[in-house]
Design a protein that fits this description.
Distance between the termini: 61 Å
CATH superfamily of the largest domain: Aldolase class I
Protein name: Pseudaminic acid synthase
Helix content: 25-40%
Number of domains: 2
Structural class: alpha/beta
Radius of gyration: 30 Å
Domain AFP-like: 294-350
Strand order of the largest sheet: 5-4-3-10-9-8-7-6
CATH class of the largest domain: Alpha Beta
CATH architecture of the largest domain: Alpha-Beta Barrel
Number of helices: 11
Shape: elongated
GO molecular function: N-acylneuraminate-9-phosphate synthase activity
InterPro entries: AFP_Neu5c_C_sf, Aldolase_TIM, PseI-like, PseI/NeuA/B-like_N, Pseudaminic_synth_PseI, SAF, SAF_AFP_Neu5Ac, SAF_PseI/NeuA/NeuB
Order of helices and strands: EEEHEHHHEHEHEHEHEHEHEEH
EC number: 2.5.1.97
Length: 350
């Protein structure tokens, strides 16, 4: 078994899915709003809140043209430079401590995605219980090694990565001292469509790398996440906001509090329903056996009279012989007078 613990909470197939609310840039540069998001995540039943730890300067260059300008007409961020986008979306480092403190007060685990080595050092000073690696950094082997050297569990999104790239990433993490890895199936489009999600990758990842697996879900709604649990997802990450109508860099594909509550509830129901291979009545089904069809005398029958299709029927309840014996009964003679409504049994036959 590959199960492990994050902050005392067990992650694995024998435990309910671990639900992460990703704040990202949905704080809209307001610490007050960030703390409101923490409180809403706690009320929704999420198990953890995740931040992203970077500055615009550690992510990119302050250039507003060419490779550093987003021109893709299908992008949510068309018309922004990378620098301006990250400047708007980043969580100020001085906010981390009050956010983490509020999480602790409300029983939420709190951790973050570091985007460079200075962010790892900073998060270590806050004693985070684990780390997340974003899809766009899953091939940054020096960063992976730095994170792994902390000895804490790492959750890695697999968006865009080939099998060969993931092999390098997992190997680097293990060699650098990471004791526990969870790979999240991820489609790096915002939002993602169900058709592009390819959930069958989840059990394949688990078998190929012998790790816990989960889903970083950018689709709308809860259906895809619920389905992922049946295929083995033990961790689910969803972007989270107070209201999509409030706007923000990630609001368009983020969950609102009532949706997060539904996600927590429905994924746990899906996990409970997996069970095991089972046939025959369960203990709770056994009382229902009496409502099966069985053979009953449907008309009064005198001693010596022949059983026919008119005086014997397969009906509910289930206290007579099973219907499969009907043809064996037909043509036989009654051993005694039989009242209509009597369950058929072998001792009624002459």
């Amino acid at each position: 078994m590959n199960e492990f613990a994050i902050g005392g909470r067990l992650i694995g197939a024998d435990h309910p899915p671990f639900i992460i609310a990703e704040m990202s840039g949905n704080h809209n540069q307001s610490l007050e709003r960030a703390l409101e998001i923490v409180e809403a995540a706690a009320r929704s039943g999420a198990h953890a809140l995740k931040l992203q730890t970077y500055t615009a300067k550690t992510m990119t260059l302050d250039i507003h043209e060419g490779d550093f300008y987003i021109e893709d007409p299908s992008s949510l961020w068309k018309g922004s430079s990378l620098y301006d986008l990250y400047e708007e979306a980043h969580t100020p480092w001085e906010w981390h401590e009050p956010i983490f403190k509020r999480c602790k007060e409300l029983g939420l685990l709190a951790f973050s995605t570091p985007f460079d080595e200075t962010a790892v050092d900073f998060l270590e000073s806050l004693d985070v219980p684990c780390y997340k690696v974003a899809s766009f950094e899953n091939t940054d082997i020096p960063l992976i090694r730095k994170i792994a050297s902390t000895g804490k569990p790492i959750i890695i999104s697999t968006g865009m990565a080939s099998v060969a790239e993931l092999e390098e990433t997992v190997k680097a993490a293990r060699e650098a001292g990471c004791p526990h890895i969870c790979l999240l199936k991820c489609t790096s489009t915002y939002p993602a469509t169900p058709e592009s999600t390819n959930l069958l990758t989840i059990p394949h990842l688990k078998e190929m790398f012998n790790v816990e697996v989960g889903l970083s879900d950018h689709t709308m709604g809860v259906g895809v996440s619920v389905a992922s649990v049946v295929l083995g997802a033990s961790v689910i990450e969803k972007h989270f906001t107070l209201s999509r109508a409030d706007g923000g860099v990630d609001s368009a594909f983020s969950m609102e509090p009532h949706e997060m509550k539904a996600l927590v509830e429905e994924t746990e129901r899906a996990w409970q329903a997996i069970g095991k291979v089972s046939y025959g009545p369960t203990e709770k089904e056994k009382p229902s056996l009496k409502f099966r069809r069985s053979l009953y005398v449907s008309e009064n029958i005198r001693e010596g009279e022949t059983f026919t299709y008119e005086n014997v029927r397969a009906i509910r309840p289930g206290f007579g012989l099973p219907p499969k014996h009907l043809d064996q009964i037909i043509g036989k003679q009654a051993k005694r007078d039989i009242k209509k409504g009597t369950p058929v049994s072998w001792d009624l036959l002459g």
